[in-house]
Amino acid sequence: MLTFHTYSLGALETNAYVVVNAERTHAVVIDPGTADGALMRKLDGLKVEAILLTHAHFDHIGGVDALRKRYGCPVYIHSLEKDWLTDASKNGSLRWAQVTPPITTDPAEHYVTDGQSLTFCGETFKVLHTPGHSPGSVGYLVGDLLFAGDALFRRSVGRTDLPGGNQDQLFRAIREKLYTLPESVIVLPGHGPDTTIGEEKSGNPFVR
């Protein structure tokens, strides 16, 4: 059985997740916003199989290269944002100069597609493309856990006023990709507390 650990990182308090297998030997990192010391201490001694990115906004990628170099692990992202890692104007770090220096990383090693199944830590991570907050936003579903990025929050949704955002796309993705999941699925968002699909279907004021 997988376990996960949450780290709220950086000026925007972005949730990074470390997912660990039952034997506590292998791990996956999701959205490392900074190269946080506590996060890396959790990873030390584990085989880090991958860094999975829900999207490439700067507050989700700031720790990518430090972790990739330290643990020798590949990075996965949707192909629609393959240029965002290498371009500070696309990932937003130039726009938010008051909270971050310009951020760039090396390109990702792998590009994910909607419906793709990835195997890490002995479990299947299913890719769900949920554009709207950004063109290449994805969620990763493993068992009853959904690492949702900035698509769906507790009683809220991701903003769509940034470059590449689209409200209609986001609402459609939430209704067609996320609300069709079992209501018991735990939603682990890019910011703020967790929730469930059932709670959001019944109580989210933005998308019902």
Automatic annotation (TrEMBL):
Span of domain Metallo-beta-lactamase: 13-191
UniProt entry keywords in alphabetical sequence: Hydrolase, Metal-binding, Zinc
Enzymatic reactions: 3',5'-cyclic CMP + H2O = CMP + H(+); 3',5'-cyclic UMP + H2O = UMP + H(+)
Record SMART domains: Lactamase_B (SM00849)
A Pfam short name: Lactamase_B
Cofactor(s) this protein cannot do without: Zn(2+)
PANTHER family: HYDROXYACYLGLUTATHIONE HYDROLASE GLOC (PTHR46233)
Function, in words: Counteracts the endogenous Pycsar antiviral defense system. Phosphodiesterase that enables metal-dependent hydrolysis of host cyclic nucleotide Pycsar defense signals such as cCMP and cUMP.
Name of the protein: MBL fold metallo-hydrolase
Species this protein is from: Cohnella yongneupensis
